[in-house]
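=== Structure Prediction Worksheet ===
Name of assembly: unnamed complex
Input type: mixed (protein and possibly other molecules)
Chain count: two
Listed entries:
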Amino acid sequence: MNFIRKAVKPAELLIIAGKTKRVTVKYPFEKPILSPEFRGSIEINHEKCIGCGACVNACPPNALEFVESSDKRTLRYNIGRCIFCWRCIDVCPVNAITGTRNFELATNDPLDLYSYIVHSKTKCTSCSKTGETVKMRKYIMQRSPVTENYINNCPDCRREKFINALSVRKVGFVAK
Amino acid sequence: MLMDRNHIIQEYISLAKSLNGNVTIDNDTLHIIIPKESLVEIADKLFNKYQCDFRTCIGVDERPVNGYFSMTYVFTDNRNSLYLLIKTYIDSLNPSTPSIMKVVPAVDWCEMEARDLLGIEFTDREQYKLVLPPGWPDNVYPLRKEVPYNYRPLLRGTSEKISPSTELGVIPIGPYHPALHEPEYFELYVEGERVIDVKYRGFHVHRGIEKLAETRMTYQQVNFLAERICGICGFEHSTCYALAVEKAAKLDVPERAQYIRSIILEVERIHSHLLWLGVAFHVVGYDAGFMHMWRIREKIMYLAELLTGSRKTYGINLIGGVRKDINEDKKQKTLETLRELEKEFRELIEIAINVPQVKKRLSGTGLLPKEDAVKFSVEGPVARASGVNKDARRDQPYAAYKYTSFKVPVYTEGDNMARALVRINEIFESISIIEQLLDKIPRGPIMLEDFDIPEGKIGVQVVEAPRGGDVHFVITGHGKPYRWRVRAPTYNNIPALKIMLKDQPLADAPLTIASIDPCFSCTDRILVIRENGKREWLRITTGV
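=== Predicted Assembly ===
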């Protein structure tokens, strides 16, 4: 009796198979099975982004990068490199980045993989070197009491200006 | 050797002192600095007398700091939860040190890796090129600090011939072969249907992960890189890295974060074992079992996505905690899924393991005796199926495992069936561990706020991945690890395949290779192709 039970045991799989039926979905025609927590591609809000570079520093695979030119700083998002970790969303100080549940990212044109946000850079009023983005400067001014006199300069000029001002106040003249 | 822990620590200290060593104790880690002349003796004592487990060895270029190279051998005392780091400094002008291979055979690959990547010569053993490709310029050692990470010599593609067939037949398996999922090459010498000898040629895939982490990434970015060492057990690697850095920096990570880590680790173990069982059934030709295993695995994949946001490469580990919390809703959903899974798995596995063909093919094939398991320091289910009772979750408790109770299944048969049974039992244990953890999970933050990581500290951690113990060794640096060494379990398990495949029917070879659940890309994480037209073979141990 036991022997027969053992012999037909493998056939019990048929019962299980009959009970479960088909578990796959006809994907392109039916909706895929996605959990509500799924992390997909990211979207960057052009208006909110200030070009501070927090996401660029945090991004593990360098999917977010700055492309620098003389007066423009471009934030480039390469979805082909993105690992969908959403670290950029964690670190963005202005909540400009939002996560989507979109994973259907295949394309015929590799250029579609890139998206850009172009920021114009500020110019130092003394030495005309370019510095941070215009929006970033605005953001700093809203948050910390920096005088217009200083903020319009690059860090080098700012330092020099400060030392000179100090020396005028203490010694009476600017040391050469 | 059951002894009081303090007593055994004193014994290790006096052993090191007697060999002119210098010992510092840091929690569960004994840092022993020893002159290189005493290296073999201390390794012999630890491995053979105290029966410590050999994990890996690490070559470090410390010239920018103190002008020396160093070799660190990681031993663990599993009974007393101790890590023993045996470190020796090596002169930088003529880097050479005695090899400990005579006393610890498992050191073979990692010594050769240090030779290729750092240029440290080992005496008293046969040396060969392990990881660098042929045509790689002499005197360029990639892991030395002066070599830039993007250094790329011009290499010419060359081909490698298989051995000429003598009276034995030669059957090549790989580098691309339906029975293997990754580029690895086995050459089986057969006499009729019986495998007489095996040659293994690995290290085809170079990813340069360690160099990358040491040069152009930050501490937090490396977590995501570590997760990509392996496609199946990635979370173990990122946890292991995070724990090693936290240990080095002495960070006190919130309990809740540690619980979540353990839960996700167990979720990953369940999915990996189910995957393996599916693959094993597929290899023996029982495809119905394969389909059903993967069907129930899908529930776990969905669960992982629900808990972390991604089916694989979860990306929730950071140094100092985790990024995603488990709320009440998810907890209920998890418990529900696990209950369902347990019921279905129990039903299915009982049927599958009773299929006569499966039973016959698994039993008695791919034998690995205990002595060889110890000699090669094999890891995980391979070790536990051969009667070696070790499991880092119990022996070196990390994350939240100290709050759980679970059995470590150990079988003494050492065949493929035993390896399958170990994994089957572990699935049930894992389900129970997750239930215990979810029941006890404390409230609180999941991420440590504000911490800094001091430079020049050493952290080493073993994390039990589904395939065995991952070892991560970290020396902290400025904003990124100064040295980060990874040892995946398959690194230790592959050499044992030589024993398992010998004197077995050829038809069982794919199953036996699959039975160690090999993860070749983890093993190769540092390596480049090596070919030079001439036949030059890699040796698993001496005498191949």
